[in-house]
Amino acid sequence: MSSSRTAGPAATGTIGEAHRSLRDQVYVELRERIIDGRHPAGYRIVERELADELGVSRIPVREAIQRLEAEGFVAAQARKGAFVAPLGPAEAADFFDIREHLEALAASLAARRADRDGLRTLERLLGRARRVADSSRRTRELGSVHADFHQQIVVMSGNPLLQGLMAPLDGRLRRLFSLTSEPGDGPVMCGEHELLYEAIRSGDADAAERIARSHVAGTRATALQLLAEAGTADGAAEPADPAPRRMP
Hints:
By secondary structure, this protein is mostly helical. The protein has nine helices and three strands; from the N terminus they run H-E-H-H-E-E-H-H-H-H-H-H. The protein is globular. Mean pLDDT is 83; it is low at 1-14 and 233-248.
């Protein structure tokens, strides 16, 4: 999801007023709060408080928490409840191992199968990324638009199985970008994405695969270093005690 939707349905009223199922609405809202950092690692999620805030019963909240726990966003502790799970270097390294291979494959397929509409979408995302990169304070939006760019390449691969494999990784990618994007990243990221776009546009599958793999490998070291530094600074973001944190 792009940052333009991070406020979620709760921004304009209780979440139960929208048309999507309550379970899905609560899931999307809580997932976005974790991805964009409003609920950081270690944040305690209290069912009753979240249900009251969103104007729903505790059942869809509980179901959303269970779903997010299965996806690795939430961790449950006995007698302490549910907390936002930390994203540390070890988890990120595993993610990069998978991402490098799948995104390289997606780029190669996209170069073979790209159509005019898909290329136009990539062009729009590149333009948006350049505009965001001009503002040194909008690092979260920069991470979001870069995630959108990568997601579009997966769509352009035209491979439903690959899209299904990548879908569960999208939220982790967005959270990783949110946690590790820095003001100076914009020009470098845009430059690498422009090279990847040109390879896809020209139909050079080998070059697209090579550039995609190099791009992921290049961001890996920086991201792991930032996560390691963050873990050292905050004690790996583990909850210090079971006292509940109030929702903002």
